[in-house]
Each structure stands twice: as structure tokens, then as C-alpha cells.
Recover the amino acids of this structure.
């Protein structure tokens, strides 16, 4: 248990004062304005302390830990489940989003000629496993493209109508490169109407946006832990629908996913049964007390603030940026339809270098890619900081 666990409260209990004081929950960043939570979250003080304490006690392997990794992992399953459908049996621990998506690709039926729909420019962890699976099955990956002025939701809905045989639809809730939001309510109902399977990569939204699994009815959901879940690298989460918890096949066969019975024996002529639920998909090598303790601290903080409150507060930040861009006459630089927590500036190509260089001089950290400057704040950023970002951008424009 970490100290932050003691302060965990339900979302309804989140006081505005807590959010105002939220910046102090993160490690200080000096004069750096860190706007790259979509790459990796700034570190919570509680996660740093929990990680260091675990590192320290790991130096004495002869002493039993106060809590076994297995117990820690069970409690983490519960904390992740509270962000999804509340069922901890649905959750497996995996090292990366790519690993979870490879598990989905290994299990979902796919026949020759079938199509797997993804977004054009989707993050590679939610593309490469499908490319591989399609190559094995003589199926096709179809990248949804967007027409001028069209949003991604309508582009996906149009592709679902025009594509003759979509069997799997593998999408994010929020685009990783510019924060464009997809309406999963509308998309999911269409996906199910045509009988396709839905796989969601929530790496860029879980912990920052509410979910509605009862409505979306996905087959698999993945999310990395080191972005909006405020945890460490190397620990991600896989949610599996009930039918896959019963008969899904893992991409590796680790002992921790099996019930070894009394005495922990694995006789050659006995195949040990899987542990309950999605635990059959648990990857090996994740019983690392440092990562587990840091993940626990991150999730405790996410629950203490509450996801709806985080989404509101981050929306305030990105709306402040949009308003300041408007005030500087830079409305065309905004990303229409972005999520509350991620957006991107779209300067004219000839100004991109100058704007990015100005950010560098002012110690503003964001990702530059594909002609965009991605802006992804967490609660360490104030709305006033966003006005400064827009002013610096305008001065370099
Ligand atoms: C949408 C999305 N999915 C997944 C990842 C990370 O995937 P993996 O854990 O496979 O490296 C990222 C990282 O930026 C991402 O933006």
C-alpha cells in the first residue's frame, strides 16, 4: 500500500480545492512547462516515493515483502476495473499495448478476404498485430481516411457502410497525434449492427475520459499505464469480454496464469487449468514490486480526483488554449473536435520550425510530429500557462 491509498476517495468526493492543489501532487518541473502527457505522464510524488520504497526494500530479497506481488496485482486489477466495467476478473496485466493487441489478434476469428478496419495513421501498436494476422489469414487491413472537413467518427461510419467485409474494427477513443476524439457510442452500435468485433486501444484516454463498456461491448480493450493512468513504463492492461475469459488463448504460457494447485507442481502429463477470468492472459515478468507500487500510486490518484473531474479540468486547459489562439488570430491553428486532454497546434508549414524553436527557448515541452505540435497537459498545468503558450506561438508566427 502506498500513502496515497489512504486518501483515495470516490469521484463524487473530489473537492474543487483538491483539483486546484493538484499540481503539487506531481514532481516539480522547475521552469519547464511539460505538455507531453500523451507521451508519458509527469511523475506523481506518490509514485516516485512508492517506487523508491519498493526499490529499497527489493535490495533485501531475504525479507518477505509487506504485500506479495500477487496481492498487489489483484488490487491493481480492481482499480483498473473501476475505470471500465467494475469486474476485476476481466483484467489481465501485460507489458505493452502491443502485447494486449497481439492477444486480441491471436483470438478473434478472421478469414481470407475479411477486412480489419483501423484509422489511417493509427498508433503502430494497434496496426502491426493486425498486419501480421492479416498476412497469416490472407485478410486485409483497411485504413480509414477522412475526407476534407470530415471528422473521424463519420469517416469510420462511412467506411463501415462501404467496406464489403469488415470483421474486426480496431480503434482508439482519441487519436494519439492530434487528440481528435471519436464518438464510440455511434461507432460501436454500427460495428455491432454489422456483426463485426470491436477492439479498443484506450492508451490515450483511460484515466482522462469516462468509458462506457456496457454500451460499446468491445471484445478486447487495452491501455498502457504510463500516460493518463499516471503509472510506470512496462505495465499495461488488457480487458477481455466474458467469452474470451473462458476460452481465449494467451500468446505465451506463463506459470503465473495457471492454477498450480497445492504444492505448486506442474506434472508433465497434467495441463494445469488457467486461473480465473482474464488472468489466463497475464504476461510473465510483471511481478515487479517497483512497477506495481508505482501503478498503485497512479491509480489511487486518478480515483481520488475522479475521471469526470480530470476530464473537466483538462478540458478547461485546452479550451483556454483555443480561446487564446482565437484572441491572437490563430484560429486556423486549432484542432477541431479534439478531446479535453489532447490537442495539437497546426501552424503553417513555413512557421513550424520557428514556433517549435520558440517553445524550446521558453522551456515548453511538447511533441512535434507530422507538422503538428501536440499539446497534452495534466493537472500540473494551469489555464494561464496555456495563454502563455498561445502568446509565444503568436510571437513566432
Ligand atoms: C494510442 C497508443 N497506443 C499505444 C501506445 C504505446 O503502445 P506500446 O505499449 O505497445 O508501446 C501509445 C504510445 O504513445 C499510443 O499513443
Amino acid at each position: 500500500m502506498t500513502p496515497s491509498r489512504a486518501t483515495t476517495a470516490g469521484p463524487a468526493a473530489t473537492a474543487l480545492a483538491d483539483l486546484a492543489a493538484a499540481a503539487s501532487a506531481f514532481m516539480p518541473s522547475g521552469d519547464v512547462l511539460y505538455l507531453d502527457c500523451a507521451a508519458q505522464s509527469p511523475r506523481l510524488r506518490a509514485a516516485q516515493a512508492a517506487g523508491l520504497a519498493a526499490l529499497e526494500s527489493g535490495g533485501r530479497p531475504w525479507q518477505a515483502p509487506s504485500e506479495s506481488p500477487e496481492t498487489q496485482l489483484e488490487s491493481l486489477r480492481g482499480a483498473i476495473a473501476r475505470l471500465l466495467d467494475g469486474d476485476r476478473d476481466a483484467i489481465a496485466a501485460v507489458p505493452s499495448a502491443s502485447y494486449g493487441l497481439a492477444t486480441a489478434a491471436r483470438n478473434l476469428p478472421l478469414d481470407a478476404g475479411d477486412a480489419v478496419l483501423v484509422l489511417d495513421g493509427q498508433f503502430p501498436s494497434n496496426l502491426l498485430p493486425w498486419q501480421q494476422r492479416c498476412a497469416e489469414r490472407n485478410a486485409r487491413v483497411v485504413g480509414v481516411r477522412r475526407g476534407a472537413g470530415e471528422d473521424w467518427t463519420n469517416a469510420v461510419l462511412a467506411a463501415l457502410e462501404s467496406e464489403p467485409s469488415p470483421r474486426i474494427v480496431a480503434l482508439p477513443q482519441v487519436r494519439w497525434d492530434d487528440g481528435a476524439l471519436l464518438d464510440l457510442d455511434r461507432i460501436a452500435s454500427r460495428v455491432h449492427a454489422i456483426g463485426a468485433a470491436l477492439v479498443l486501444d484506450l492508451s490515450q484516454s483511460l484515466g482522462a475520459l469516462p468509458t462506457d463498456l456496457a454500451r460499446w461491448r468491445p471484445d478486447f480493450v487495452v491501455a498502457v499505464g504510463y500516460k493518463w493512468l499516471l503509472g510506470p513504463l512496462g505495465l499495461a492492461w488488457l480487458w477481455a469480454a466474458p467469452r474470451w475469459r473462458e476460452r481465449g488463448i494467451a500468446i505465451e504460457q506463463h506459470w503465473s496464469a495457471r492454477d498450480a494447485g497445492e504444492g505448486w507442481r506442474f506434472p508433465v502429463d497434467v495441463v494445469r487449468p488457467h486461473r480465473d477470468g482474464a488472468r489466463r492472459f497475464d504476461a510473465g515478468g510483471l511481478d515487479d514490486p517497483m512497477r506495481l507500487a508505482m501503478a498503485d500510486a497512479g491509480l489511487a490518484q486518478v480515483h481520488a480526483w475522479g475521471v469526470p473531474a480530470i476530464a473537466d479540468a483538462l478540458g478547461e486547459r485546452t479550451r483556454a488554449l483555443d480561446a487564446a489562439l482565437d484572441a491572437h488570430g490563430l484560429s486556423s491553428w486549432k484542432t477541431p473536435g479534439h478531446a479535453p486532454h489532447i490537442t495539437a497546434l497546426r501552424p503553417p508549414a513555413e512557421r513550424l520550425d520557428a514556433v517549435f524553436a520558440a517553445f524550446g527557448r521558453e522551456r515548453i515541452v511538447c511533441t512535434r510530429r507530422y507538422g503538428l505540435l501536440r499539446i497534452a497537459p495534466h493537472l500540473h498545468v494551469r489555464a494561464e500557462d496555456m495563454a502563455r503558450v498561445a502568446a509565444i506561438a503568436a510571437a513566432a508566427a
Observations:
- The chain has 13 helices and twelve strands.
- The chain has a mean pLDDT of 94.
- Residues 307-327 form the longest helix (21 residues).
